[in-house]
Design a protein that fits this description.
The chain is α/β, with parallel strands linked by helices and 454 residues long. The chain is built from 13 helices and 15 strands.
């Protein structure tokens, strides 16, 4: 129940792809001309190409591999902003952004924070007023909250940011793979930089992530050194992706990321989003009925919960893919089933109502049409229990693993009103079962009764 921290278990193909890389492709990519080095280079390229296809990026060289989303965000922020530049962000950012902004503020960067309501609504009017008031170099936004499950409308925000000539950086660590990216045009025309982790919604191993760089983005590298290219020069290469990928890449991790992405594509991002929303709704409904429980964030809203409960008689479909799925060995990417959804091309099986968001589905999963507007993150507190103590007892007595506290996102907790103690966060994932949801609800009910002396 801690998939927001890292997806687990991983698809079977992830481990197998990593072992295959170590056994048969374990050379240093881009460093030598022998067969193992070339095999490693091909695998890295295949995964880079698969990610580009998944996002709808024209040039796969614009996918920069990093060790995680945090590194990708630091590269985008520190590499792009200078003293006297102005950056706007939101009041629900993760520490990967907020701490970097704090550092940049100490270096002379002008940082302004746009408010978010306690119900998760970004103050779009306030964002536009801030953009009008003073020239802004960059806007950085959190697509999906790892605390509350809220999401923002990236298409609306990107249109506004572009209108005022600023760069848009998206923290997609909690959204990518869990939700389709709904844009009215190609990502190259809407988002300047997008940072993501490989080990969450993309189902890959830890130690993987990437930064997408749009045509208007040219940050300074964070790390300089050997790339296996232009070795006669003392200067860092200026071409992509080498400019940002000094040192040996995490080849086994990237191979595993490719297998995780392959599984996601086989399942379908929209199918995964609906399944996870139904699990979150079922969990929230059960928790709501326990005296002393208070839900926080997106799944505290009864209307959302009721709209995503599986219809009577429907069952949550478990993943079909149990075999290794990797990008094609011929260098072509695995077929995408919906990373970026461009509304100019309607989704298979959907009727597009407003020209952007698919609103009805002829063959709805679980009897529930549409696409969720929140990720499967259910935050709660229980009367009489400290969140950390509650999480400990859930693990010790019931084997239920969750995360408690501030979740590296104190800004989001201040917005929610749960700072400084935080919450207990449940985050079901692709392999979570309805039976496991029932177990969680029963366990919380028992602990609630116990604390009341009942």
């Amino acid at each position: 129940m801690d998939n927001a921290a890292t997806s687990w278990p991983k698809p079977p193909g992830v481990e197998e792809a990593m072992l295959l890389y170590l056994r048969e492709e374990g050379g240093n990519p881009g460093r030598s001309g022998h067969r193992l080095s070339l095999a490693a280079s091909r695998r890295i390229f295949q995964v880079r190409l698969a990610l580009a296809e998944f996002l709808g990026v024209k040039d796969p060289a614009r996918i920069i591999f990093t060790q995680n989303a945090t590194e990708a965000l630091s590269l985008a922020l520190i590499g792009s902003l200078n003293p006297q530049d102005r950056v706007l962000s939101t009041a629900i950012e993760h520490n990967a952004v907020s701490r970097t902004l704090s550092f940049l503020r100490s270096c002379g960067v002008d940082v302004e924070i746009i408010s978010v309501s306690p119900r998760g609504s970004l103050d779009v009017t306030g964002l536009e007023s801030a953009l009008k008031r003073k020239k802004t170099k960059m806007v950085v936004v959190n697509w999906a909250s790892n605390v509350a499950g809220w999401t923002i409308d990236l298409d609306e925000v990107s249109g506004l940011v572009k209108r005022y000539g600023a760069l848009l950086l998206v923290d997609a660590a909690q959204g990518l793979g869990h939700l389709p990216l709904l844009l009215s045009d190609r990502i190259d025309d809407r988002i300047d930089m997008l940072a993501a982790s490989g080990h969450k919604g993309l189902l890959g191993p830890q130690g993987t992530g990437f930064l997408y760089l749009g045509p208007s983005s040219n940050p300074r590298p964070l790390i300089y050194g050997g790339t296996g290219s232009a070795s006669s020069s003392d200067e860092q290469p200026g071409f992509l992706p080498d400019k940002y990928e000094s040192g040996t890449l995490n080849g086994p991790g990237i191979a595993g990321l490719g297998a995780g992405l392959g599984t996601l594509l086989k399942e379908g991002v929209i199918e995964v989003a609906r399944k996870e929303a139904c699990l979150a709704a079922t969990l929230a409904k059960g928790l709501m009925e326990i005296p002393g429980v208070k839900l926080h964030g997106a799944w505290s809203e009864e209307k959302r919960v009721l709209s995503w409960l599986p219809q009577h008689g429907a069952e949550v479909r478990m993943p079909a893919s149990k075999n290794p799925v990797t990008p094609a060995d011929d260098g072509t990417a695995a077929e995408s089933s919906g990373g970026v959804v461009n509304a100019r091309t309607p989704l298979a099986g959907t009727d597009v109502g407003d020209g952007r968001t698919p609103v009805t589905t002829r063959a709805p999963v679980l009897g529930v049409p549409g696409i969720p507007d929140a990720v499967a993150v259910v935050s709660m507190t229980l009367e009489g229990w400290d969140p950390a103590q509650l999480a400990f007892e859930l693990d010790r007595r019931y084997g239920i693993m969750v995360r408690a506290g501030l979740h590296c996102s104190p800004w989001a907790h201040r917005t929610l009103g749960t700072f400084p103690t935080g919450t207990v966060r449940f985050s079901p994932g692709l392999y979570t079962t309805p039976d496991e949801i029932e177990t969680v609800v029963s366990a919380v009910k028992e602990l609630a009764i116990e604390r009341k002396g009942g």
